[in-house]
Design brief:
It is built from 20 helices and no strands. It is mainly α and about 425 residues long.
Length: about 425
């Protein structure tokens, strides 16, 4: 690292801190869905219907994310990465903070879940514009042969954001009784987002434009409508990039949102204990991220994704025996394995997706592929998993993971290796 200039280190930090804050915002909602959103916003239904309704609101943001990717991608490819990233962070933070002050169903009736859906949509729009720009910051500044490593920094944002999210709820679970937590305590992490967004905006507004995009501006390489160019000439890498992402999302949201809901209800594991188990497991995702990034620079993006994807396919067969055991040790070990594999499949994406597209549509293309993968792999993952448990059992949820992994492995096999390509 000694040969890396301080300015590039600042860029790496800025790409990391922004995604950490945005994913913190996103994950606190996922955790709240598993614990309180149903009773607060859908109190007239039985617990199973509450859970299904809450999981549906969870999925709304994934529908919004590709829209956000195309919207912010348009401006990111037209006017630059810096301003677009600052606005996406502001949209996300504002939506999250407003969820924290939104009255529940008992106060304003069905207006409450309607507004919740609207704000959840806003979260999706903001996050849809975030990741592509953060990945481009890292990749377009990266020294030669180090794009995988520098593309890893925005990929570290999700596990750190998740640790912050889980840590905040775990602390509240220790400090408050269940009634206080359900009445008002769950809102505190949402309100705390406002402070984090101010920090993130300060870091983002100190950035300079990437040299790759600056050269594109000077040579007038921008296109009038990047989305039209993307779908007309780059549909194949867009589709394959989205399909490669499916396994990442399925692993993560089955291991966190679904498992938390199932563990605390069907298995009666106390919420603080299960949150602590997730804190342990997420460390394995954080550990896998730099390892997979280094392997991606050395061996290529495709081999890393294919090997980790095949392991994820096999891991689906472990879900039923692990969760059905009720053993804290076995469940924690399974969650750790799944999140390690998530980190291994996710880390190469920070370099792979930007490498699939030329500069003039890179923000739009990378962000759209990333977030279209979210619709396929995550938007309904907790909901589908809940339905599979009700109608088929836990083994069907494991099968869901295996199918998602198979889809991503096949997509990776169809892609060309990108690590030696130039971004300019």
């Amino acid at each position: 690292m000694t040969n890396v200039s301080p300015s590039i280190l600042r860029i790496a930090f800025a790409s990391f801190i922004g995604t950490a804050i945005e994913f913190y915002d996103f994950y606190i909602y996922g955790l709240a869905v598993a614990m309180v959103i149903g009773p607060v916003f859908f109190p007239d239904s039985d617990p199973a219907v509450q859970a299904l309704n809450a999981f549906l609101t969870f999925g709304i943001a994934f529908i919004a994310r590709p829209i956000g990717a195309l919207l912010f991608g348009h401006f990111g490819d037209r006017i630059g990465r810096k301003t677009t990233l600052a606005v996406s962070l502001l949209v996300m933070g504002t939506s999250t903070t407003l969820i924290g002050i939104l009255p529940g169903y008992e106060l304003i009736g069905w207006t409450a879940p309607a507004l919740l859906c609207l704000l959840r949509f806003g979260q999706g729009i903001g996050l849809g514009g975030e990741w592509g720009g953060a990945a481009l910051l890292a990749a377009e500044y990266a020294p030669k042969g180090r794009r995988g490593w520098f593309g890893m920094f925005p990929q570290l944002g999700p596990p750190v954001g998740f640790l912050l999210a889980v840590g905040s709820f775990l602390l509240l679970s220790q400090l408050l009784d269940d009634n206080a937590f359900r009445a008002w305590g769950w809102r505190i992490p949402f309100l705390a987002s406002a402070i984090l967004v101010i920090i993130g905006l300060y870091v983002r507004l100190k950035l300079t434009e990437t040299p790759v995009f600056a050269r594109a501006l000077q040579s007038h390489q921008q296109v009038r409508l990047p989305v039209v160019e993307l779908f007309a000439h780059h549909a194949k890498p867009l589709l394959l990039g989205a399909l490669v992402m499916v396994v990442c999302y399925a692993l993560f949201y089955i291991s966190t949102v679904f498992s938390l809901s199932y563990g605390t209800t069907a298995l009666n594991i106390p919420r603080p204990q299960f949150l602590a188990m997730l804190c342990v497991a997420i460390l394995f995702m954080a550990a896998a991220t730099p390892l997979a990034a280094l392997a991606g620079d050395r061996f290529g993006r495709r081999p890393v994704i294919i090997v980790a994807g095949c392991a994820a396919l096999l891991s689906g067969f472990l879900l039923e025996p692990a969760l059905a055991s009720g053993s804290i040790i076995q469940i924690t070990a399974f969650l750790s394995l799944e999140l390690f594999l998530m980190g291994a499949t996710f880390a190469p994406m920070g370099a792979l997706l930007p490498e699939l597209f030329p500069t003039r549509v890179r923000y739009t293309g990378a962000g759209a592929a990333y977030n279209l993968g979210g619709i396929l792999g995550a938007s309904l993952a907790p909901y589908i998993a809940q339905q599979l448990v009700l109608h088929g059992g836990l083994s069907w949820v494991g099968g869901y993971i295996s199918v998602a992994a198979a889809i991503s492995v096949l997509a990776a096999l169809a892609l060309k290796e990108t690590r030696h390509g130039e971004l300019t």
